[in-house]
Amino acid sequence: MVWLKPATKQFNNNQYIYRTMNTLINKLSIHLFWDVDFSSLDKNKHSRYIIERVVTKGNINDWQAIKEIYGLQKIKDEIIEIRYIDKKTFSFLISYFNIDKSKFRCYN
């Protein structure tokens, strides 16, 4: 995780983390979120939505960004709960995370 130095000494820890997460989310391709206000995305509140968009429609830079933002375990936990994944992405995720396909919500 990259930590930004505050511009002033008035930042507390929550603002420190918020600025860092905003910077990381800004690394994502904005076209993935064409249907929402990109600036209103919250890393924690919208994690499944962000991960789903990147996994299904993102590029390699977006993938690297979510790995940096969430970590592989969080991504794994969220993708299992996604309701629909196309066949190509589904095959990639099964191989990458070594998960049995029957554990995915979209498989049932």
3D architecture notes:
With 108 residues, this protein is an all-alpha fold. The protein has one domain. The protein is built from 5 helices and no strands. It is globular and about 35 Å long. The relative contact order is 0.11. Mean pLDDT is 81; it is low at 1-20.
The radius of gyration over CA amounts to 15 Å
Low-confidence stretches: 1-20
**Whole-number average pLDDT?**
81
Measured by DSSP, the beta-strand proportion falls in: under 5%
From the spread of the alpha carbons, the general shape counts as: globular
How would a textbook summarize the main sheet? Answer: none
Counting DSSP E segments of at least 2 residues, the number of strands comes to 0
Task: State the end-to-end CA separation.
Answer: 35 Å
Number of helix segments? 5
SSE order, one letter for each helix or strand: HHHHH
Structural class: mainly alpha
* Count of spatially separate domains: 1
Q: Helical amount among residues, as a percent range?
A: 40-55%
Protein topology:
Elements lengths: L12 H13 L21 H11 L2 H11 L1 H8 L7 H11 L11
Helix pairs in contact: 2-3
Which features characterize this protein?
108 residues, single chain, mainly alpha, disordered N terminus
Summary of the model, kept short:
With 108 residues, the chain is mostly helical. It has five helices and no strands.
